[in-house]
Design goal:
- The protein is about 80% helix and about 0% strand.
- It has one domain (about 1-240).
- Helix 5 (about 95-120) packs parallel to helix 8 (about 165-200).
- The protein has about 250 residues and is mainly alpha-helical.
- It has eleven helices and no strands.
- InterPro entries: DUF5995.
Length: about 250
Amino acid sequence: MGGAVDLLLSRMVALQEELEVTGDPARFFLGTYLRTTQAVRMALDDGRFEDPAWVAEWDVDFAGFYLDALEAYRLDPDSAPDPWRRAFGAARTLPPEAHVLLGMNAHINFDLPQSLVRVIPDDEFADPDLLASRERDHERIDGVLASRVAAEDAELVRVGGRRTTLDRVLAPANRAASRLFLRESRRKVWANTAALHEAALRGSGAYERRLGQLEALAAGRVADLLRPGPVLLRLAVHGFGVTLPA
């Protein structure tokens, strides 16, 4: 169990070192993700999940969507999914926190439902008790993420994040807002996962159409994430996640 996550961490560390050398702004999201994955690794060791073996499998599969997109973009930008092209192609002059939000949007709103569909087989979707267990472990990740909010905010300041006097005053509210919209987005992810699974049961064509809708929705969030103003408070009110239409 731990071995697969440790290999994932090694892959992330190697990529992070490359991005640091070139000054690629993708290093900001990868750094955040690396530290979060280390926290998940500790939570696995601490027995915080109902099915740690499944969570470890899911953690590695989920991260693969992002790492594969990053490596694909570096070779050929057009080969990456639209939400990731927008994240990786964002202006280098944006503050670190903006790059992190763009990465979170692509990875949570677009990648996460795909990964859950892949690591929850059809028979588990058909088993209400087992599916409920999977959902509870999915929600427990929120606790790991929430525990990182303050430390990640401090890390973004350290690497050059912009903080006005108003930002410093709003810091406690922004941290609370971050925890709120992370929970909100995960609820929507679970609903989108069910929608993708239902589409997959109808065939690859139906699945690809739904995935295309999800890709467009996640790409469409970018403009709002980059709109001037207190973005974290705005997300807490209006939401960070996307919802596939019925």
